[in-house]
């Protein structure tokens, strides 16, 4: 069992839920989640370029919702500063999670994994620094459902998603899944919300300092600016296999 909530979540009819919410607004999806899951609903945020949109949208409805922020230990200084601005302004109930393996220990054992420029090394990096802390957070917060600000325009995998999905035993809600870049901009403007300072430097997405860069004329896709163009997803929003789930549940990394 990936999470204690797995058995409960199996009773949810995803097809029916998606039909009912097909024409719902982003706010209505959040309200549905709040009514359905109560205090077992959480959200995640990368505190990235447009993080203020989901953080504002959700906390206007559920002010004290736990906001899981996975801090890899390799974020740019500007991200930490931007995070503090949003935490203070929106009075976020932030839950910071980090890998149990320090950056120094990881580099001593495996080297600077991002420099290998292979999918295998990036997968190991993401598993240690992002995936394990995220699923530990979901377990410790006893989450039944997870709000995430994914949008179909971001990656090939996200094009396949519905508003309500199941990921490794937890319900995922995607309120702004079908929003365009224009929708995001208009929401930020309408509510006078800040965006990450890297946006003004040409970034369309920002993660760790070593795996993000500004968009260039040669890029055919915005996600080419992450992970040296080798990967579109870091693994946080991909299903776990049973073996991976068991490994994470017993992890002592």
Give the key terms.
disordered C terminus; 10 helices; Rossmann fold; six-stranded mixed sheet; 6 strands; 253 residues; disordered N terminus; alpha/beta
Give the topology.
Blueprint: H1 6-9, H2 14-20, H3 26-37, E1 41-44, H4 51-59, E2 66-70, H5 77-90, E3 93-97, H6 103-110, H7 119-140, E4 145-147, H8 156-159, E5 164-167, E6 170-173, H9 181-190, H10 242-249
Parallel strand pairs: 1-2, 1-4, 2-3, 4-6
Antiparallel strand pairs: 5-6
The overall number of domains is 1
Sequence of strands across the biggest β-sheet: 3-2-1-4-6-5
Q: Tell me about the biggest sheet?
A: 6 strands, mixed
How big a fraction of the residues is strand? 5-15%
Order of helices and strands: HHHEHEHEHHEHEEHH
Q: Percentage of helical residues?
A: 25-40%
CATH homology superfamily: HUPs
CATH architectural type: 3-Layer(aba) Sandwich
Ranges where pLDDT stays below 50 over 5 or more residues in a row are: 1-10, 242-253
């Amino acid at each position: 069992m990936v999470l204690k909530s797995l058995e409960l979540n199996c009773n949810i009819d995803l097809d029916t839920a998606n039909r009912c919410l097909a024409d719902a607004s982003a706010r209505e999806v959040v309200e549905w989640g709040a009514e359905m899951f109560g205090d077992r609903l959480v959200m995640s945020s990368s505190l990235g370029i447009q993080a203020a949109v989901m953080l504002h949208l959700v906390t206007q409805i559920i002010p004290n919702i736990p906001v899981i922020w996975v801090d890899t230990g390799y974020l740019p200084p500007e991200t930490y500063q931007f995070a503090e601005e949003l935490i203070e302004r929106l009075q976020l109930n932030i839950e910071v999670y980090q890998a149990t393996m320090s950056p120094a220990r990881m580099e001593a054992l495996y080297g600077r994994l991002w420099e290998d420029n292979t999918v295998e090394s990036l997968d190991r990096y993401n598993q240690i620094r992002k995936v394990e802390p995220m699923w530990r957070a979901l377990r410790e917060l006893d989450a039944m459902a997870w709000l995430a600000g994914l949008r179909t325009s971001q990656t090939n995998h996200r094009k396949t998603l519905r508003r309500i999905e199941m990921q490794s035993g937890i319900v995922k809600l995607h309120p702004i899944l079908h929003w365009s870049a224009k929708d995001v901009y208009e929401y930020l403007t309408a509510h006078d919300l800040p965006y990450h300072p890297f946006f003004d430097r040409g970034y369309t997405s920002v993660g760790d300092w070593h795996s993000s860069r500004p968009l260039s004329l040669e890029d055919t896709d915005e996600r080419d600016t992450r992970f040296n163009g080798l990967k579109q997803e870091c693994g946080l929003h991909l299903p776990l296999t049973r073996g991976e789930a068991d490994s994470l549940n017993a992890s002592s990394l």
